[in-house]
Amino acid sequence: MKIVVLEPLGEKVSIPTSTTLLDTLLARRCEVAMACGGQGICATCHVYVREGHDSLTAQTDREKRTLALMSGAQASSRLACQACVVGDGVVVELPEGMYLQAAQDLTSL
């Protein structure tokens, strides 16, 4: 099992090794659009990896192409559907305003 920290929510989610970041978000009940169904082409599951880059699988060519087309992509950007957690120490920052579930989520920002 691995622990992934979701910021700015400050939540720790325990997941089996090799689980995607997308499944981690869904386990937390984040409403991710997944417009492409997890194929890595729509970028609706975009996140920033603040720590633990080496604890994720490498970017696929498809993920690299999709991120290259995004205006908000950073060096730490990943598509949650393409990144599998294989090690410890992963801290993921959800893009501001995305995946909000309730008023308390807004106050945590």
Account of the 3D structure:
The chain is of the alpha+beta class and 109 residues long. Helix content is 20%, strand content 22%. It contains three helices and five strands; from the N terminus they run E-E-H-E-H-E-E-H. It has helices at residues 21-27, 61-69, 103-108; strands at 2-7, 11-15, 46-51, 77-79, 90-93. A five-stranded mixed beta sheet has the order 2-1-5-3-4, with helices on one face. Strand 1 (2-7) and strand 2 (11-15) form a beta hairpin. The termini are far apart. The model has no long low-confidence stretch (mean pLDDT 88).
Nearest-integer average pLDDT = 88
Overall 3D shape: globular
Order of helices and strands: EEHEHEEH
Helix content: 10-25%
What is the straight-line distance between the termini? 28 Å
Q: Please state how the strands of the largest beta sheet are arranged side by side.
A: 2-1-5-3-4
Number of strands: 5
Q: Please compute the radius of gyration using only Cα atoms.
A: 13 Å
Strand content: 15-25%
Which residues form runs of ≥5 with pLDDT under 50? Answer: none
Largest sheet: 5 strands, mixed
Q: How many DSSP H or I helices?
A: 3
Structural class: alpha+beta
